[in-house]
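In response to the reviewer comment on reproducibility (Comment 2.3), we provide here a single inverse folding case reported in full, input and output, so that an independent group could reproduce the run without further information from us. The structure tokens appear first.
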């Protein structure tokens, strides 16, 4: 790979090895084995959408909770959810989330609520006890589980959280697809008609070109000069902006691609990478601590989440950027929504693209930063 300028490096921030968009090789024919529905044991209690946001919107249309408010956590992906609540004119109230990612919600809020939204943060936070408490306080409350960070909870058609009336998921946060969301009813069958789009969506072409460019750059040793980098970044941003405005079912492209991935293998890699970081976390990085220190036998983590003082969070993120490691922030404050908790967190990528060597490179970078900070 040949790079020619500092500006090229800036443009390539989202294409480097640890973090960023998933690559995909469209030059190699991928055989469809109908693995998705079989792996997750899906039958008739689900419906596909173009995004998790759209699945959430549809669930709200099915629950008919108004005029009673929907209880929402202050810590969540507000850039995706707030526009839905505002557009659908859903009354909502916020509850706090503590440093262990648990709800802080008083009985008075639960008594008057029509529905309660819970988030399975990073695929690792169990809300079963709180859900039982909420139902005891208000037996009629509808519980909606945001499983966007917990795709593998879809196994057994969502049976890991039978206490939720509804669950919703996002596919593109986990695998290389241009779109894809899923709503699951724990109440019984749902109408599945028209849940696959008949015509291509406008973001499919730019996403596909960007995914192929990234694959060629990473795995075919193709040169990425400044012009190519600018092209990639433009494609990526275009696809991202378009999907935010899209409604409807999953694209036919994504519906085909989801059946080509070795999902069980991906789960094993995520678990292995998480445990590599957890078992080898540098003891001298005392100000930078893992938020989760263990995995349950069925847990498949989304990220390896770390907490630190707010005063060093941005400098740590920038330091990792400089090492070509790109941890996102979950979730930045948006239009006045958000939680202070987000200012102290970073999410280290651990997905199927990475090896144990990659994890040790991350550990080395954390240790060097901590040494420089005197942590």
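Designed residues, in position order:
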């Amino acid at each position: 790979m040949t790079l020619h300028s500092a500006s090229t490096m800036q443009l390539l921030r989202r294409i480097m090895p640890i973090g960023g968009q998933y690559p995909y090789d469209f030059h190699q024919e991928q055989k469809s084995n109908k693995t998705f529905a079989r792996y997750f044991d899906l039958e008739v209690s689900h419906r596909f959408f173009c995004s998790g946001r759209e699945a959430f919107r549809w669930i709200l249309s099915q629950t008919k909770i108004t005029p009673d408010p929907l209880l929402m956590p202050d810590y969540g992906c507000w850039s995706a959810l707030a526009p839905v609540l505002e557009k659908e004119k859903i009354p909502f109230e916020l509850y706090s989330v503590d440093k262990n990612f648990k709800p802080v919600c008083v009985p008075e809020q639960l008594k008057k609520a029509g529905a309660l939204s819970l988030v399975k943060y990073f695929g690792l936070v169990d809300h079963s006890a709180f859900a039982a408490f909420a139902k005891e306080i208000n037996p009629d409350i509808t519980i909606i589980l945001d499983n966007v960070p917990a795709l593998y909870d879809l196994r057994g058609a969502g049976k890991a959280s039978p206490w939720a009336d509804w669950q919703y998921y996002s596919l593109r946060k986990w695998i290389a697809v241009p779109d894809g969301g899923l709503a699951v009813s724990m109440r019984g069958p749902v109408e599945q008609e028209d849940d696959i789009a008949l015509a291509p969506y406008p973001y499919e072409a730019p996403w596909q070109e960007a995914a192929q460019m990234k694959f060629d750059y990473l795995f075919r040793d193709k040169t990425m000069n400044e012009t190519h980098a600018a092209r990639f970044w433009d494609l990526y941003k275009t696809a991202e902006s378009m999907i935010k405005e899209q409604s409807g079912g999953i694209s036919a492209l994504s519906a085909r691609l989801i059946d080509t991935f070795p999902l069980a293998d991906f789960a094993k890699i995520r678990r292995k990478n998480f445990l590599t970081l957890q078992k080898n976390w540098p003891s001298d990085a005392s100000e930078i601590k893992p938020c989760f220190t263990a995995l349950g036998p069925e847990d498949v983590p989304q990220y390896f989440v770390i907490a630190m003082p707010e005063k060093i969070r941005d400098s740590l993120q920038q330091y990792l950027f400089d090492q070509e490691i790109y941890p996102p922030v979950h979730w930045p404050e948006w239009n006045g929504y958000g939680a202070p908790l987000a200012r102290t967190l970073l999410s280290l990528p651990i997905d199927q693209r990475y090896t144990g060597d990659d994890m040790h490179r991350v550990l080395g970078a954390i240790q060097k930063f901590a040494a420089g900070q005197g942590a």
